[in-house]
Design a protein that fits this description.
With 190 residues, the chain is an alpha/beta fold. It is 38% helix and 21% strand. The chain has helices at residues 12-21, 40-47, 57-62, 65-72, 89-94, 118-126, 162-187, and strands at 2-6, 28-34, 52-54, 77-80, 99-103, 131-138, 148-155. 5-O-phosphono-beta-D-ribofuranosylamine (GRF) binds at residues 7, 9-14, 81-82, 102-104, 116, 170, 173. This is Phosphoribosylglycinamide formyltransferase.
């Protein structure tokens, strides 16, 4: 089974996913794609000798080139890991129920356009939440609205700041995303 990871930033989730499947004979990360030529996730992929592909808005939204690339690689699952652009309808149609995302809050709260990174954690603290967590969900044509696959929670302590809850969330992401991906791939027939 073959995984494509889309990321826009550092790629710590991508790294954990790549490491998780390194010893797996049946599943592999076949390619890492980014919309940002300078994103560190590309460096991480290079370190593992995993092919990368950088695309711009024109390719991603005006052509089928990205889709054709993924189909040519026989990708079974598309994993968004800190990918900040909306996924276009033609990509969703080409990979129905095969695109997933991770969000650093307990959707449906604290999600949607522009809600990413520390903006999410600031909103959670300002709302006075006692807990937060992560959500792994299928991707549809709206930010953070697809069917939820997995959620994990952490408690928010009185003097937790944005950095602390971001850290707690990231720990859960690294712990759960690879396993959720593995379980989904086991279910995908082919
Ligand atoms: C994570 O917080 C994830 O929930 C969100 O973007 C961040 C990606 O972090 N979608 P990294 O690039 O994997 O370190």
């Amino acid at each position: 089974k073959r995984i494509a990871i889309f990321a826009s930033g550092s790629g710590s989730n991508a790294q954990k996913i790549i490491e998780h499947f390194q010893k797996n004979k049946e599943m592999e990360v076949s390619i890492v794609l980014s919309n940002r030529p300078d994103s560190y996730v590309l460096q991480r992929a290079d370190n593992f000798e995993i092919p990368t592909h950088v695309f711009d808005r024109d390719e991603f939204y005006q052509t089928d080139d990205t889709i054709k690339l993924l189909q040519s690689l026989n990708i079974d699952l598309i994993v968004l890991a800190g990918f900040l652009w909306l996924v276009p309808g033609n990509l969703i149609k080409a990979f129905p129920n095969k695109i997933i995302n991770i969000h650093p809050a307990l959707l449906p709260k604290f999600g949607g356009k522009g809600m990413y990174g520390n903006r999410v954690h600031k909103a959670v603290l300002e709302a006075g939440e006692q807990e937060s967590g992560i959500t792994i969900h299928y991707v549809n044509e709206h930010f953070d609205e697809g069917e939820i696959i997995h959620q994990s929670k952490y408690k928010i302590e009185p003097n937790d700041d944005v950095d602390m809850i971001a850290y707690k969330g990231q720990q859960l992401e690294h712990q759960h995303y690879p396993k959720v991906i593995e379980n989904l791939l086991k279910k995908i027939s082919k």
